[in-house]
Structure formats: structure tokens, C-alpha cells
Design goal:
The complex is a heterodimer of chains A (253) and B (355). Chain A is an alpha/beta fold and 253 residues long. Chain A has helices spanning 42-49, 72-78, 95-103, 111-115, 119-139, 154-167, 184-199, 211-217, 235-240, 242-249; strands spanning 2-13, 16-27, 31-35, 57-62, 65-66, 80-82, 172-176, 203-207, 220-225, 228-233. Helices cover 40% and strands 25% of the residues of chain A. Chain A has a six-stranded mixed sheet, with helices on both faces. The longest helix of chain A has 21 residues, at 119-139. Chain B has two domains: 3-323, ABC transporter involved in vitamin B12 uptake, BtuC (Orthogonal Bundle); 326-355, no CATH class. Chain B has a two-stranded antiparallel ribbon with strand order 1-4. A two-stranded antiparallel sheet of chain B has the order 2-3. The two termini of chain B are 17 Å apart. The chains are: A alpha/beta (253), B mainly alpha (355). At the A-B interface, helix 2, helix 3, helix 4, helix 5 and helix 6 of A face helix 7, helix 8, helix 9, helix 10 and helix 14 of B. The structure holds adenosine-5'-triphosphate and magnesium ion.
């Protein structure tokens, strides 16, 4: 059964058509890779799913609900979390606080319970810290909880973004170039992490230029070029597809 | 002996607040003992003024310091509160103290009305619009809007607040009222700062897009910050009206907005301690420099520029929050085998700054 279904998405910026009729499905529990050359419109597709952009036409269906054009925060609440291609952490805040941001949508203490420190507010806060530490431990950053987010290494910042996304208890996680800027060892760790996330029952959709990583972990690949899907299928199929080789992978792949 | 190390101590804010308010509580007595002329009426009046500004700056701090909204129209909300109290008291004979929540609510309602259309504006645009709001409010008041604001003369003859039969009339009683209220405000705002709500405001200040991506309803939190700040400014208006007893439109001009804004920025945006220090410095020094009032603005402007260059985060920037998360270390499983081992042995490239 498909968890996410994109139907004929169209999005243009002025005269530039960034996404030109994209349709594909993501099955529940799977790992799907979205690949394609630079400027193909991959990030734009992500931004449409998460409600950052409203498509000119087409639908985004998540778990049989049409979520097209809904507000980003409402979509997160439904269970879609994301990371950003150009890391967007809260740089001046602590690592733990960054993850607590992810917990935000799974709690509900407001203004008054904060000012009067109601027992419910206290226990909710304690649970949020515990939950955030659980996710930090999961990605291997628990000992950094008190560091400033901006002081982490590039690779660790990417992991922190993943922890923050996981803290919102998503059913569906989308990662925009998670291995970008990582060295070989870090990428190997990331592969392990993505598998572990999937083992938790979370469906993943990821953009990635590292073909090695993508071929290893994805069950299905969708190839985008000039905003259109030129191929989709299993990694093995994609590797042999002449259109994909010409557009993206190159001859020697 | 290293003061900076003590400043990192978890209960430092509590100690600092306790010491500060203990000193403040004993000042009337100290002035009396020191034999200040008239039991220090002049000094107490000065401190009352500082207290009102501290309240205003604390409330603006929620909007400007915590949420990062460039709002330079805070006197508009202050004016709404002060006029609400003045009108209800002089025309409808409401006891002054009972107008306190109404003044706050009216100011918050007014904030909601003006903020809804402009809340999505960014930085400098918001600044310009909020400056406009102050001027509109002042002009409305001067032109005797609804025929109840008394025009350019304003309203006089506001009664003293009476709480449980206790009248707050002398400067000393006013002093306890204003600073008592400030003390309560500090506690409530401190608790707010250290909560889910307070963090949400900070996330928005740092990166709106990322905050929305974490499930935070950005527009709603911004509105809430605006209304809360306005509510408190409105209540400060009540205290001001009851202290000064006659109010006029010129007390709520744009320059007052600039001063409150500067208190927050110079003191330390997002820092309660910084904001209170800022109120003392800016309002206190203004009085010191009264003799050469023509140069006052020059000094003020130069201080602003110097701060922006040498210490943009303010005199006393916000502290890091503590969560007591250490107790969860080693309790939860890790997904990455190598990271688990490596985490105990921090990477060289990380310049960790553990507190
Ligand atoms: N907000 C925007 N305004 C105008 N043009 C945009 C905007 N966002 C994306 N584009 C354009 O849309 C096209 C697709 O961009 P997108 O970021 O989706 O590509 P991508 O596949 O993610 O590329 P990369 O691999 O480099 O990240 C590009 O030509 C880009 O310049
Ligand atoms: Mg991209």
C-alpha cells in the first residue's frame, strides 16, 4: 500500500518549470531514492510535499488524505518530517534544544501552564527531554547534548538534523542529500542509521547523489530530469536504463 | 575565584534575582536611614520611572528579544492601557486596580487587530509599520477620538490604586507596587522562557522555515508573543496612569518607543537580567545627562552604535538553559556502532563548548 502518492505535480517559478508533471508512489515501509542531475527539481518536489511550496497543479496524497497546500506545521503533525539540503539547525542553541524543537508538535503545554508550572507541564517537559535524549542517543550524539549546534562538525550537524526530524515521531521521513559533505566513514555510518530508521517502521524518501549509498539501501528509485520523471524502478533496473545512463549516471557506471 | 564560573551555576539566576529584589526592597529604608531629603522622594520617583520602563522593556523583550520581531511601536500598547485605566476610572468611577486586567486585555486586543495583517512582514518592514502605529495612536489621542480621550490636554484626576483597603499613594507605596509587580513579572517571564512556549519563540527567531519544519505554527506563536507583550504593556499603562495621575498624548510619542527598544537591544535581547540592567542604565543615565539635554541624544546614539559594533548581543546576553539531561546518558540504544564508541571520544574537529 502506498503511504505517499504524488499525482501530476506541476510547479513553475516565473518562466522556469521546475517540476513538470511528477507522479510517483512511496510504499509504506520502503526506502525510496529520488535522484537526478543538479537543478532537476528534486528539492522542489520535497518542498511541495512538506507544504513549503504550493504546487500550481497536482495533488499530494498522504495516507489517503489530500494534503496539497496545507501549512507546513500541520503536515509535520500528520507525520511527515524532513531535513534540509543546506542544513538548517538552530545554530546558536544547544544540541538538545534542537531536538526538543522536533518534540514540539507532540506536546501541548502552552502559555499559562508554562507561567504557572502546572504538574502536567512539568511531566510533559521531562518526557520531552527524555524523548529528545533517546533520539540523540539513536544517532550517536547523546554526549553532545549540551554543545552549541553550530559547533558540531558538518557530518554531525546532518545527524542532528535527522535526530530533530525523528523527534517529531514521523511515519514518513524525507532526507535531502543526507550524505552531502560527509566522508566515506561517515557515509557508511549514515547507511547503517538509515537502515535502523527504516527498521523502526519509518518510511523514507531521500535525495542523494552518492550512487553507492542509494543503490545499497533503496528499494525503489525515481529519476528526475528537467522536472520530469524519466524512469522509476528497482536499483538494478535503473542502473541498466539507457535514458538514465545518458542523463545522469554516465557511461562508465 | 572566577565570576564567569559562578554565572554558569544552575541556580545563579535565582540567587541573582533574590539578591536584586532584596536590595530593591530595602532601598526605601536605606534612603530614610541615609537621611535623603524628604525621605528620598526624588530617588523613589526616579526608581518608579525605571520600574515602569523595566516592565515595558520586559514585555517588549518577549516580542523583540525572544521572537525576534522588530517591533518599535510598543508605546501604542502602553498608551491603550494607560488610557483605558484613565477613562474607566475618571468617567466610570472604576477603582484603579480593577482596571488592570481590562487595560491589559484591551491592549492585547488592539495588538491582535494590528498584528494580524502585518505579522508576516519581515524585519525592517515590520519596523516601519509598527512605528506608524505609534504615531496613529498618538494622533488619535490628540484629536480626542470617540470624544473620551481629552484631546491634547489628556486626562487628569486619576485616583490612587487601593488594594484590600490599602491605598498606594505615597511615592514609597507606589515604589512597592511597581517593583512588586515587576518582581512577579520577572518570575512569570522566566518560567515562560524556560518552557516549550519560550523555546518555540526562540526557534522562530533563529530560523522561521526550520521552525515551521519542526511543526511550529509560526504565525500563531508570533501573534501570541505580540498579544502577551501588549497585555503586559497595557498593565504597565495602568501602573503608570496611577502613578502619574494625569496622562497626555505627548507621553506616548515615538521617542518613548525608541527608548524601550534600545533598552532591550543594549541590555541583551532575550535576557531578563540584561533588560533590567538596560532600564537602569538608559533611564538612570538620561536623568544624569539632563543638564546637557541637547547632547543627550548624541551620547545615546553614539552608545547605540558602539554597542552594535563591539557587543551586538547586548550587555548581558541570554544564558543557556539547563535541562538536567545528563541523567539519560547511556540509557538509550544507538543505531550506529562506530558512533557509539566514538561518542565517548569526541572528534578532534568538534570544538565542543560544554557548559
Ligand atoms: N524559490 C525558487 N525560485 C526560483 N527558482 C527556483 C526556486 N527554487 C528552485 N528553483 C529552480 O528550480 C530548479 C530546480 O531546483 P531544485 O532545487 O529543485 O533542484 P535539485 O534537483 O534539488 O538540484 P540540486 O541537486 O542541485 O539540489 C532550479 O533551476 C532552481 O534554480
Ligand atoms: Mg536540491
Amino acid at each position: 500500500m502506498s503511504l505517499l502518492s504524488l499525482q501530476n505535480l506541476l510547479k513553475s517559478f516565473g518562466g522556469l518549470v521546475a517540476v513538470a508533471g511528477v507522479s510517483f508512489d512511496v510504499d509504506e515501509g520502503s526506502i525510496v531514492g529520488l535522484i537526478g542531475p543538479n537543478g532537476a527539481g528534486k528539492t522542489t518536489v520535497f518542498n511541495i510535499i512538506t507544504g513549503n511550496y504550493r504546487p500550481d497543479s497536482g495533488d499530494v496524497v498522504f495516507d489517503r488524505n489530500d494534503i496539497t497546500g496545507r501549512a507546513t506545521h500541520a503536515i509535520v503533525r500528520l507525520g511527515i518530517a524532513r531535513t534540509f539540503q543546506n542544513i538548517r539547525l538552530f545554530q546558536n542553541m544547544s544540541v538538545l534544544e534542537n531536538v526538543l524543537a522536533g518534540c514540539h508538535c507532540r506536546a501541548n503545554a502552552g502559555l499559562f501552564s508554562a507561567m504557572f508550572r502546572t504538574p502536567r507541564q512539568r511531566s510533559e517537559e521531562r518526557r520531552a527531554v527524555e524523548h529528545a535524549m533517546r533520539e540523540l542517543a539513536f544517532v550517536g550524539l547523546e554526549h553532545r547534548h549540551d554543545n552549541q549546534a553550530g559547533s558540531l562538525s558538518y557530518g554531525n550537524q546532518r545527524l542532528l538534523e535527522i535526530a530533530r526530524a525523528l523527534a517529531s515521531a514521523p511515519r514518513f521521513l524525507i532526507l535531502d542529500e543526507p550524505a552531502g559533505g560527509m566522508n566515506e566513514q561517515e557515509t557508511a555510518d549514515l547507511t547503517e542509521l538509515i537502515r535502523a530508521i527504516n527498521d523502526r517502521g519509518i518510511t523514507l524518501l531521500l535525495i542523494e547523489h552518492d550512487m553507492n549509498l542509494v543503490m545499497q539501501i533503496c528499494r525503489k528509485l525515481v529519476v528526475l530530469e528537467y522536472g520530469a520523471v524519466i524512469a522509476q524502478g528497482t536499483p538494478a533496473d535503473i542502473k541498466r536504463n539507457p535514458k538514465v545512463i545518458e542523463a545522469y549516471l554516465g557511461i562508465d557506471c | 575565584m572566577n565570576l564567569a564560573r559562578y554565572a554558569r551555576y544552575r541556580y545563579f539566576p535565582l540567587c541573582l534575582g533574590g539578591v536584586f529584589f532584596a536590595i530593591m526592597a530595602s532601598i526605601p529604608w536605606l534612603l530614610n536611614e541615609a537621611g535623603a531629603p524628604g525621605s528620598g522622594i526624588a530617588q523613589l520617583d526616579m526608581l518608579n520611572k525605571i520600574g515602569i520602563y523595566a516592565l515595558l522593556a520586559l514585555s517588549l523583550n518577549i516580542i523583540l528579544g525572544q521572537t525576534g520581531l522588530f517591533h518599535m511601536g510598543h508605546t501604542a500598547f502602553f498608551a491603550v492601557g494607560a488610557y483605558a485605566t484613565a477613562i474607566l476610572n475618571t468617567m466610570y468611577q472604576w477603582p484603579v486596580f480593577s482596571t488592570l486586567p481590562v487595560a491589559g486585555l484591551l491592549a492585547a486586543l488592539f495588538a491582535l487587530l494590528v498584528a494580524v495583517p502585518i505579522i508576516r512582514l519581515r524585519g525592517d518592514y515590520l519596523l516601519v509599520v509598527t512605528i506608524g502605529i505609534v504615531e496613529i495612536v498618538r494622533i488619535c489621542l490628540t484629536n480626542n477620538i470617540f470624544g473620551i480621550t481629552g484631546g491634547a490636554n489628556g486626562i487628569f484626576g486619576i485616583a490612587r490604586p487601593v488594594i484590600f483597603g490599602l491605598a498606594f499613594s505615597s511615592p514609597r507605596q507606589q515604589y512597592y507596587l511597581i517593583w512588586g509587580f515587576t518582581g512577579i513579572t520577572v518570575i512569570l517571564f522566566y518560567l515562560l522562557e524556560h518552557s516549550r512556549f519560550g523555546r518555540a519563540l526562540n526557534y522562530i527567531k533563529q530560523d522561521e522555515l526550520a521552525a515551521a519544519g519542526c511543526g511550529i505554527n509560526v504565525a500563531r506563536y508570533k501573534l501570541a508573543a505580540f498579544c502577551l507583550g501588549a497585555f503586559w504593556a497595557g498593565m504597565a499603562g495602568t501602573l503608570y496612569a496611577a502613578n502619574i495621575r494625569s496622562i497626555e498624548p505627548t507621553s506616548f510619542n515615538f521617542f518613548e518607543s525608541v527608548i524601550i527598544f534600545a533598552i532591550v537591544i543594549l541590555g541583551g535581547a532575550g535576557s531578563i537580567t540584561g533588560v533590567i540592567l538596560g532600564a537602569f542604565l538608559l533611564i538612570g543615565l538620561q536623568d544624569v545627562f539632563r543638564d546637557f539635554s541637547s547632547a543627550r541624544m548624541l551620547i545615546f546614539g553614539a552608545a547605540m552604535i558602539a554597542m552594535m559594533v563591539f557587543r551586538p548581543q547586548g550587555l548581558l546576553p541570554a544564558r543557556r538553559r539547563h535541562y538536567g539531561a545528563r541523567r539519560y546518558l547511556g540509557k538509550f540504544p544507538c543505531a550506529v556502532r562506530r558512533q557509539c564508541g566514538a561518542a565517548y571520544n569526541p572528534y578532534a574537529e568538534d570544538e565542543g563548548d560544554c557548559v
